[in-house]
Amino acid sequence: MTQQVLALVLIVFFLARLIWQKQRKKIKSGEFIFWLIFWSLSGLAIVFIKYIDSLVSRLGFSAQGIDVLLYLGVVFLFYLIFKIRLRQEKLDQEITKITRIISLKDKDKD
Questions:
Q1: In what helix (H) or strand (E) does residue 63 lie, and over which residues does it extend?
Q2: What are the CA-CA distances from residue 75 to residues 18, 61, 68, 69, 89 (Å)?
Q3: What is the CA radius of gyration of the chain?
Q4: DSSP string for 7-20
Q5: 107: part of which helix (H) or strand (E)?
Q6: Within a 13 Å sphere around the CA of 61, how many CA atoms are in the beta-carbon half?
Q7: Which of 38, 47, 60, 63 could form a disulfide with 67 if both were Cys (CB 3.0 to 4.6 A apart)?
Q8: What is the pTM of this model?
């Protein structure tokens, strides 16, 4: 029970930070909605962890519900890392392209 309360307090903190970031216009609306849904679902999963435990056991898994949520969280994090890596690679290519254009223009001026 203490772990659930602590987790819910952390989620409320993250939601408050999210709202604060949105008010300061540090994040876009789409990103705000995504994280709002994510943290809300996380809070609901913690509140209903007993139901998740029973669902997981009925599905035949030997782990507890919290373990399954942790595994799903790790998979989600790896997915986000993958998406960030793809975005970084695209930015690197665009920077390289812009650098080439600028260097060719500078070369033509000489």
A1: none
A2: 22, 17, 11, 10, 21
A3: 22
A4: HHHHHHHHHHHHHH
A5: helix 65-109
A6: 14
A7: 63
A8: 0.65
